[in-house]
Each structure stands twice: as structure tokens, then as C-alpha cells.
Amino acid sequence: MNWCSRPSFVILLVVLLLSVDDSRSQSPAATPTPAPVPAPSPDAICNGIYLSYVLEKWEKIHPFTSDPADQPYSFSATATVLNHGASDLLSWTLLIPFRHRELIVSVGGGVLTNGSTFPYNTTLDANATAFSGYPNTDLKTAIETANDLSQIEAKITLVGTFFGSPPLPEFLALDDPSYSCPRPTVYNDSYSVDTCCLPNPNYVPKETNVTGFLPRLSGDLIISYDVLQSYGSSYLALVTIENHNPLGRLDRWQLSWEWARNEFIYSMKGAYPSVVDVSDCVFGKQGQYYKDLDFSKVLSCKRNPTIVDLTPWQYNNTDLGRIPHCCRNGTILPPEMDPEQAVSAFQVQVYKMPPDLNRSVLFPPINWNISGTLNPNYQCGQPNRVSPTAFPDSSGLDSDSLALASWQVVCNIFRPKGASPKCCVSFSAFYNDSVVPCKTCACGCPAGTSGPTCNATAPALLLPPEALLVPFDNRTAKAVAWAEIKHYNVPSPLPCGDYCGVSINWHVLTNYNKGWSARVTLFNWREDQFADWFLAVRMEKAFAGYEQMYSFNGTAMGDNTIFMQGQPGLDFLNGEVNGNNPDSDPRVPGKQQSVISFTKTKTPGIDITAGDGYPSKVYFNGEECSMPDMIPANWAPRSGGGIGLVTLFLLVLAVALVILEP
């Protein structure tokens, strides 16, 4: 009997084979080992703002040095700002401290917050170098963008030079008090650091308006960039410059910025480019795209145009003027001096380039800078998007018109590291016949002046009073003769000059029991004049006793400061002119002078001749002037109005002769 031929046997055999295979598949020994789960990346576990810095490569470059600390290296690095939080990150700024004298040569995906040009020396920064986002100035959240990295992440590429060993920053931070950033984690194997910034629980949040933009900021000088009209390929913007510092000022201002997206200026009203040049358009991308545009009517195709104000007589020009607050020859006064003159404005029509040819795609220029002739230095930040500016209806209706988009640029007064003042102060007094002049090279010495011709480090020689009235080049003989009379030391070579265009002399005029007075004199050694000039002096101990000025208008301000300006008709400080006989007489400076009186009843214990009668700081047109290192020595009684040493000696001698007379 053949069992194998039976169907039942076949079925039984198949069942046995399947059961054996199934038992093997369920055996513990046959269970596969699960694949290891990779550890999450640092940014994946950050529920805030993830910051990282990766030093990607570096290379030794010339010149080769024997000292490793001075060996230069080129480097490239990438910094990342990634929003993994629950709120939008608006107008973000990343702080990176550099420790190896880094020079930043170029930046991609962002800009230097202070708008400086390249190469940028990071040693100029006190603690860290600030980078702002561009074009991604705001980073949205992963929730509202479905984790679209193009909207929630910004990468800043850096190229530069460092000295010594490969550097990694000690910290990474946001310039935003609403976030707290812990010390970063260092990954030495990959030359990178990262940290996760979380909301600061102690921060009181700023209120945001209904538009969702950040509130407007305050500063010494505020520049507004308001888009009034927008088209597919162009837009019209209003630029407004407002002075908010009581001692800030600009004369013949020059405003510059950088176009980052190949824009160009088609027309302007209220201001004008310092150079009209369309060559960059004609031979560039703009000319290739706008083939039918008449570029002879275009004003500027410069990537970094410089804008200047128009003169007052061009205000009524229908083509160039007729813009409120324009056409003042570049003068912006302090608001306390004239609120109407504290604002300047102009319009600019801008043409855009692909891919921005949409009326809703608007970008402001970056890297703003503004300067004047003899004025403070201003450092401007990058433009921040703010709520649209409201403009009153021009027809008088009780209604406002909103700008399509508005940005704000905040500029603050600062003195660059190593920069010299532009004005200086000298001291003199009734009780000493020598003048303490402006310091040697007070406003900086021109290159090559120190050496055989003059000494840039020697203290300035004390002067006779009349020497203040002549230019420095004509003082040498007077200074040397005075030193011989007074037996002062005369260095060889002689000290260099102060090289200041404006100098101020503060002279303690009288000193008596109930009060005292001083005389302040302004000297203009430049050829151009100063209209609507002002002077401010800080009197630390004598401020409370200020009474009045006799030839200037004086106002007591805060911070122990007295503000002075010319009276109507005397508000021009003329420039230097030739003497009566140009062949023999020295040039004559422009001069303004006034006496200022103080009372001692409100300042008990004040000691005028010991230093309380001299200002601690002096400002001319907003520029802080160089101050002397010493005050005139007191050789006479500290009150009495002006009895000098010689007079006192003669009186004593006369009394002695009377007593000894038989």
C-alpha cells in the first residue's frame, strides 16, 4: 500500500513542515537584534532658540612668523540661529565674542549690526560682535510654518582671518533680554559650540501692537524708512531723520546706505546723491533687465550711494523740493534749540530687481551711516521693521494715512576707539598770567608730523594770553620767549600743535565773597563759518550757582550742563580770515565771547581756584572737546577779584618802606 499516494498523507506532511517552520520563527534564539536608535541632535532637543557656531576650515597664510601667537590664518565658519520656540523671533541679533584678533572679511546670510565696512576689526567691540539677520530679519515658529527651515532658520557664513590657535567663542547669545542663553557646549572634535536659549522668566515682555511688529525704539538719532507707494518693479519711500539728543547735531549731513538686492535710485525730492552715476546699471544686471528704461534720467546706481541735503533756495523747486523738513543745507539742530529744525526728510523712488518684482516684496537698504562736518560720530544699527507710520491727512481731515511698510534705524553717538576730538579747550585765570593751552595733538597729529619738526608727546608750552589770538604757526616765537621769561623748560623739538579747527578758552575772570565770573571765548580756525552754533559746558560743583550770560543766550539743562548759543544776529561764528596786511600779519580767527556769572550762595564751600570754577566737559555743536590735563596754578589769594603776585609784592614793599621811613 502506497501511503505517499494518498491525499491524507500529503496534507499531514505539509502541516508538519509548516509547524516546524513556525516553531523556528518563534524561537527566542532566532529573534533579530533591533537597530540602535541614534541620539537626537542638539537642535532637536532644544525647545527655544538654538544657536551654534562651527569653525569649518582654516589655513595658514602669509606672512609666516616665528611667533605662533602672531601667525595669521584664514578661516570660514557658520553660525546658525534656529527658532524651535513657541514665539516668533523678531529683529534678532546674534552676539559672538572673538578672542584671536579676528578680522571679518565677508558675511553671508546676515550683516554686521553696526553697519561697518569690511574688513571689520572685531577688537573694536567691547564684549562681542553683533550680527543681524538679512534678509531673514524675523524667524517664525515651526508650528506656523510646518517646520519650513527657510522661515525658521538663518545661517550666517563668515570668512576672515585670525591669529594664533583655532578660535571658538566662549559664549553665544541673543541681544534680547527676553531670552537667557546658558554657557555653550563645546565639541572639540568638530570645532563647534552650541547652546539653547530659553525665555527669561524674569523678563517683563514689551507690549506689541496689533500689527505684531516690535515697538519703536529710542536713540540719539532716529531714521525712519517709510514706503508710501509700491508697484511691481518700484516703490516710493520717505526717509526722515530726527534728532532726539539735547546735545546732538549735524551740519551738512551725509547719509549713506547699502543696497543688498541690486536696487537703484531713479529719482529723489528733498535731497540728492553726492555723485550722479549710472554706469553700474548700464553695464550691469539692471541694464540687462530694464532694456527699455532711459537710464539718463536715473540718479544713482551705486551700491553704496551717499545722499546730501539741498540748499534752502531749492525748497520751492517743484522737481527737487517741496518736501516738508527738506532743503536746510544739511543742518539738524538739537530739539531744545529748535524743534522744527531737529528734523530732516526727503523722498526716494527705488527700482527693484528680480526676484523681488512684487508690490508686497519690500526690503530696506542696510548698513546705514550718517556724518557731519564738525559733529559727533554716530553709529547706526540695522533697520528694524516697526508698525506702519501714521501721517496726518494733508487736506485737514481728522484722519491718518498709514505707510505700506515702515522700518526704523537707531543711531547713537559714540567715539570710535582711537578717534581724536575735533575741538579743544584752554584754561586761563586772573590769578595767573600764563595760559594752559590745548593739549599737544589734541585733535590728532597728521601723519608724519612727529619727528624732526615737532614732538607729538611733549606737553604743550604755557602761553602768554595774547598768543591765543594768533594761529599756532605764529605762536612759536611768543611761546619760546614766554618760556625764557618764566624759566620754563623748552623741549627740543618743540611740541606739535593741537590741530583743532575750533578752540574754546575758559577764563576765570573774578572771584569774590558772594560770587564769581568767567569769560568764555570761541575761536574758529577754519575757513567756513558755523551758523546757529551752540556750546555746552558741564560744571560739576558750580552748576547750581549759575546766574546769567551777558552776550550769549544761556540755559541751565540737566546733568549739571549750561547750554549756550548766540543771540539773534550773533549766531554766526565766522571763519578765519587774512589779517590787515596779509604779507606780514597773521590770519585772524572768527571769534565770539561772553561773560558768565555765578553766585556762591547756592554752592557753599565751593573753591573756584582749586578747580571748581572750571568745566569738566565742553561740547561744541555736539562734539566733545579735548580738555587740558591741568588748571592754572594759584599764586594769589582765592578771593579779591584779581590781585596778582606782582601787585601784592609791591603793596608789601610800600608798607615796609613807610614803616622804615625815619
From TrEMBL:
An individual GO BP term: cellulose microfibril organization
Domain COBRA C-terminal: 422-632
Source domain of life: Eukaryota
Region forming the signal peptide: 1-25
Main location: membrane
Localization, UniProt: Cell membrane
Keyword line: Cell membrane, Glycoprotein, Membrane, Signal, Transmembrane, Transmembrane helix
Gene Ontology cellular component list: plasma membrane
Residues that span the membrane, as ranges: 640-660
This protein's record includes keyword Membrane: yes
Presence of keyword Transmembrane: yes
UniProt family annotation: Belongs to the COBRA family.
The name this protein goes by in its record: COBRA C-terminal domain-containing protein
Species for this entry: Musa balbisiana
